[in-house]
Automatic annotation (TrEMBL):
Positions of the Mur ligase C-terminal domain: 311-424
UniProt name for this protein: UDP-N-acetylmuramoylalanine--D-glutamate ligase
All copies of domain Mur ligase central, residue ranges: 109-288
Family: Belongs to the MurCDEF family.
Source organism per UniProt: Pedobacter quisquiliarum
Recorded catalytic activity of this chain's protein: UDP-N-acetyl-alpha-D-muramoyl-L-alanine + D-glutamate + ATP = UDP-N-acetyl-alpha-D-muramoyl-L-alanyl-D-glutamate + ADP + phosphate + H(+)
SUPFAM superfamilies for this protein: MurCD N-terminal domain (SSF51984), MurD-like peptide ligases, catalytic domain (SSF53623), MurD-like peptide ligases, peptide-binding domain (SSF53244)
InterPro entries per UniProt: Mur-like_cat_sf, Mur_ligase_C, Mur_ligase_C_dom_sf, Mur_ligase_cen, MurD
Length: 447
């Protein structure tokens, strides 16, 4: 009998993982990438004798599949995706595919900002509690690859809106929505409502046995929640007001009550991850931990000793009294707002890159009060100049991480902070936000 054929679009981490799992499940597999496939993934595909193509998508090799697993980075409007849909072939995400082959339960975290930090913190708390868990999704090793090779009871999955767009049967046992702020609007017809609806797919298929954790202070979340009837048990978190069940802030203490036998409380001064945004991330993580009945002492210990994530408000060095911070993961305006909100004034801000239709208006007040100079790092910095020329004394254009750091070094004085928080994607000058962050750190170390 001929095997059913599955085609995978995109040969990055998720694509390779999906190919490996599909082959293990007995499908005939073909991988197609319109760009160049990294040598590491080529070697892995060759080792499994999985055929692939790069630099193109050949329609006839793709539109004969029973199902296509698409990388989240490929827009639904791409011509090849249109051709697949025309052929009535279902297009799904790697997460949707992998979930079919595991009985493990899932904690799924989405939101415009804070996903990586919160996912990492939840995973950290689960490991501390001795729960057999793994971390996957938008972070680390692919979910599909782990399902193919390992056995876990729980998966903590960082999930982007692009992944959610191609998830249909999938269900989160615990869904966490941190916030909804303008990001990737180019993929959603520049309509906030479309983007918000995409984020709310994190709750799809949930029953009254499941949990939904969300931020009661987030305007867009509250707006769309009013239009929906959810089955799951809901636990909000807020730093602005008291909530009956969920998490709230009072007298600089985080309180969590989910109707358990014991409430949880912890001073925000004892959190390893500081800044207002991290109070939210810690609250969301704490609610999940309480849902899983993790002991208060374990939660406190975990929240107090987690290390900060690379490229997310990461301290790099202090040189001649100037602090250098790598926040390369800030690929949208809201992330940069959080970064500026968490540092004191006297900031030399390095920003720029591929602008995804950014609205810089929300940064203006913080830039006015805290930023002394902006160092642009990108090929086209026109919109940054237009947005902030009246708010800062100096805006300088640079075209490499090394040049940006050199310029910032000369502009900063003792007590200042040089903050790389780009508010833009990295693909004009770098291969990824990680590459941008690594080059920034290297340049700082060479000062």
């Amino acid at each position: 009998m001929e095997k059913s054929r599955i085609v995978i679009l995109g040969a990055g981490e998720s694509g390779y993982g999906a190919a490996m799992l599909a082959q293990k499940q007995g499908f005939e597999v073909f991988v197609s990438d319109s760009g160049r496939i990294a040598d590491t993934y080529k070697e892995k595909l060759n080792a499994l004798a999985i055929p692939f193509e790069e630099g193109q998508h050949t329609n006839e090799l793709i539109t004969n599949a029973i199902e296509v697993i698409k990388s989240p980075g490929i827009p639904n409007k791409a011509p090849i995706v249109a051709a697949i849909k025309q052929a009535n072939i279902p297009v799904i995400s790697e997460i949707e595919f992998a979930k079919r082959y595991t009985k493990a339960r899932t904690i799924c975290i989405t939101g415009s900002n804070g996903k990586t930090t919160t996912s990492t913190l939840i995973y950290h708390l689960l490991k501390k509690a001795g729960i057999n868990a793994s971390l996957a999704g938008n972070i680390g090793k692919s979910f599909a690859a782990q399902v193919a090779e390992d056995q876990f009871d729980w998966y903590v999955l960082e999930i982007s809106s692009f992944m959610l767009d191609n998830m249909y049967e999938f269900k989160a046992d615990i869904a966490v929505l941190l916030n909804i702020t303008p990001d990737h609007l180019d993929r959603y017809d520049y309509k906030m409502a479309n983007y918000a609806a995409s984020k709310m797919r994190i709750t799809q298929n949930q029953t009254d046995a499941d949990y939904f954790v969300y931020c009661a202070d987030d305007t867009e979340t509250m707006k769309i929640l009013q239009t929906m009837k959810l089955q799951a048990r809901q636990f909000p978190f807020s730093i602005l007001h008291h909530v009956e069940q969920g998490a709230w802030l009072e007298d600089d203490l985080i309180h969590i009550n989910i109707n358990s036998k014991e409430q949880f409380s912890m001073s925000i001064a004892a959190l390893a991850l500081q800044g207002k945004h991290n109070i939210y991330n810690s609250m969301a993580s704490g609610i999940v931990a309480k849902v899983l009945d993790i002991r208060n002492a374990t939660i406190r210990e975990g929240m107090g000793d987690i290390k900060n994530i690379e490229h997310r408000l990461e301290f790099v060095a202090k040189i001649s009294g100037v602090t250098y911070i790598n926040d390369s993961k800030a690929t949208n305006v809201n992330s940069t707002w959080y970064a500026l909100e968490s540092v004191s004034s006297g900031v030399v801000l390095i920003m720029g890159g591929v602008d995804k239709g950014n609205d810089y208006e929300m940064l203006k007040d913080l830039v006015k009060s805290k930023v002394k100079a902006i160092v642009c790092l990108g090929k086209n910095n026109k919109r940054i100049h237009e947005a902030f020329e009246d708010d800062v004394e100096m805006i300088v254009n640079t075209f490499s991480a090394e040049e940006a750091v050199q310029v910032a070094y000369h502009l900063a004085k003792k007590g200042d902070t040089v903050l790389l928080s780009p508010a833009c994607a990295s693909f004009d000058l770098f291969t990824s936000y990680e590459d941008r962050g690594i080059q920034f750190k290297k340049a700082v170390k060479e000062l």
